[in-house]
Amino acid sequence: MSYFVAPGSVVRRIWGTADTVLFIFAGAAAEFALNKAVDWLYFTGRLPADPLGRLFSTVDYARQIVFADQAGAERAIDAIAAIHGAVEARRGEAIPDWAYRDVLFLLIAYSMRAFEVLERPLTGPEREEIVAVFGRVGQRLGIPGLPNSYPAWQVARAEHLARNLAASRYTADLYRQYRKHLGGPRYALLRAVQGLVVPPGVGALLRLPPGAWIRPAVAFYRRTKRWPASQWAKSLLLPAAYRARIDALNTAPLLPASPAPAPPPPRRCPMH
Predict the structure, then answer these.
(1) Is the pLDDT of residue 52 over 80?
(2) Which DSSP string do the residues of 8-57 spell out, in sequence order?
(3) 253 vs 9, 70, 71, 148, 218, CA distance in Å?
(4) Which of 64, 137, 148, 265 could cross-link 76 (Cys pair, CB 3.0–4.6 Å)?
């Protein structure tokens, strides 16, 4: 059977561990809030209404891609394209190409950063593999201008961070929603984790703490991660109502093989 991501890939290891996935989306939640195209995330009203639910929806799609066979992954990617295409049609304009690249870039960045914070340094080939996997996702979506190597991605990522992020009224509102849905203590923990994983410029724009107080807990996790009691992030970062969905992140989703979907048409209205 042909897989979109090889069974032994580091990408599967990253996206098959609940704590790592939660750290990825802690960082992504911070950077999303600063993106100059964040108004697109507000257009349907679903993100501010249920930020945790949207997190799990995004996780579900990402894990379908990572763990599915080739045809199933392509179907999941095409479903993402269709969703965004429908939003674009409702709004009557296209999401900018750079905004799509930003999303792929931050998934690459926080996949690497979360794994290295919680596990170990990545090797050069592992970094290239992460870039290649998400690059194939972007190619299927028809996103132009994607880097084809880790060094090229580093250059493009730095340019995007410098050009496409700014604090706005959407930033402030999204963080109010994070606090509302998480509660004070979990919100403080979220910001601490974000301060640990985001680039310095992102942390400065959001006035995040540097993450110093959480570093001892992360060091303890790395030493005791095989103990059941050490799986602390999934228990502390999100409310108990999400416990079953968090626990499910530690196992590969059961996805049946399926016929290959037709490729999406050439992209002008991005992602569809």
Answers:
(1) no
(2) T-HHHHHHT-HHHHHHHHHHHHHHHHHBTTTHHHHSSSHHHH-HHHHHHH
(3) 16, 15, 15, 29, 27
(4) 64
Strand partners, 3: 69
> Within a 10 A sphere around the Cβ of 108, how many other Cβ atoms?
23
Which pTM was predicted?
Answer: 0.85
- Quick: pLDDT tens for 35-51: 988 887 777 666 677 77
Report the alpha-carbon distance of residue 251 to residue 237 in Å, rounded: 19
Structure tokens at 87: 């939003």
Q: Which amino acid is at 8?
A: G
The first and second tokens of residue 171, run together, are 């930033």
Closest CA to 118 of 28, 5, 53, 215: 215
Q: Do 143 and 183 form a contact (C-beta atoms < 8 A)?
A: no
DSSP structure class, residue 167: -
Percent of the chain with pLDDT over 90: 52
CA dihedral 70, 15, 244, 229 (to 10 degrees): 150
Q: How far is CA 220 from CA 117, 118, 233, in A?
A: 12, 10, 12
Give residues with Cβ within 8 angstroms of 228, minimum separation 6: none
Count Cα neighbours of 196 within 13 Å in the Cβ-side half-sphere. Answer: 26
Domain ranges of the chain: 10-248
Question: What's the rounded mean pLDDT across residues 3-8?
Answer: 93
